[in-house]
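Collaborator request log, item 7. Partner lab (contact: R.S.) asked for a structural prediction of CRISPR type III-B/RAMP module-associated protein Cmr5 to inform their binding assays.
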Amino acid sequence: MSQPVHRTTQQRTLEQQRAARAWACVAAVKGTSYAAEYGQLAREAASLVQLHGLGQTLAFLVSKRPDKPGQVNAHLHLARDLSRWVGTQLTGQELDDLREWIVRHASVAEYRRATLEALAFLAWLKRFAEAELVKEGADA
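Returned to partner:
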């Protein structure tokens, strides 16, 4: 008489935490005017990090923010999502802009760890964006 074992533990793996945050990020963008653009950026972001580095990718995303203070577009939203996740994992704080921490405080080892964490998070974000956000040029 074997019964399935149900685990009631609240402990979650880091992969589950990454997935949950990525899901929340995509859900927060869904329905905004820039959802499709965010999806496109999410699909490309890991390649940008691999080609140019985390710091330069964040700098690029933030440079494309709206001119008016308080406004958010796909670039700034993605930069904040990425900064908040990586900042939480490395510093224990949600940082809206990880660039300053990278430039002023991060050691080489911490920067490498931040890059690996960003790539792991972006893999989940890319998958959920592909599934949930309308692709550019696709029929709605």
